[in-house]
Design goal:
- There is one protein chain.
- This protein has three helices and three strands.
- Strands 1-2-3 form a three-stranded antiparallel β-sheet.
- The chain has two domains: about 80 residues; about 45 residues, no CATH class.
- It starts with 18 loop residues before the first helix and ends with a helix.
- The protein is mostly helical.
- The structure holds zinc ion.
- The site of zinc ion (ZN) has 8 residues, from loops.
């Protein structure tokens, strides 16, 4: 049995003037054309899916590159003046501080640590108001 998907040549004897032979040959040709048409349709669908996947991957890679460029441009930079931030240790908490405008920035979780430490103090009450 032929396993390839190449169109096969149908050898149907068609005697001249034989209408039944001509009809059978036409039907065979029609089935072959339908098979080839379906194969082409399937190939085009596969190509469309592959193109869509490649487009999605390119978009994701572009977005990741943009995020990385933004991270590199803004990492340890003051959100107010753009100057470099430096880390200042306050016991178990490391706070980012701007050398230029003296702004103080807390990373995720640092406010919670300050709240635990300052529980009922004035700084603790102030920080709790910022969270709500
Ligand atoms: Zn600053």
């Amino acid at each position: 049995m032929n396993q390839s998907h190449e169109p096969q040549t149908l050898l149907v004897p068609v005697p001249s003037g034989d209408t039944l032979g001509t009809t059978l040959a036409d039907r065979a040709r029609s089935r072959e054309e339908e098979f080839m048409f379906r194969q082409e349709l399937e190939r085009r669908r596969r190509l469309e899916v592959e193109a869509e996947q490649a487009k999605l991957q390119a978009t994701q890679e572009f977005q990741a590159a943009v995020r990385e460029a933004q991270r590199q441009n803004h990492w340890m930079r003051c959100p107010k003046c753009g100057s470099e931030l430096c880390e200042v240790d306050h016991g178990d908490i490391c706070i980012d501080r701007c050398e230029t405008c003296e702004g103080v920035w807390l990373d995720a979780g640092e406010m919670d640590q300050l709240l635990k430490r300052e529980n009922d103090g004035i700084l603790g009450r102030f920080l709790r108001q910022l969270r709500t």
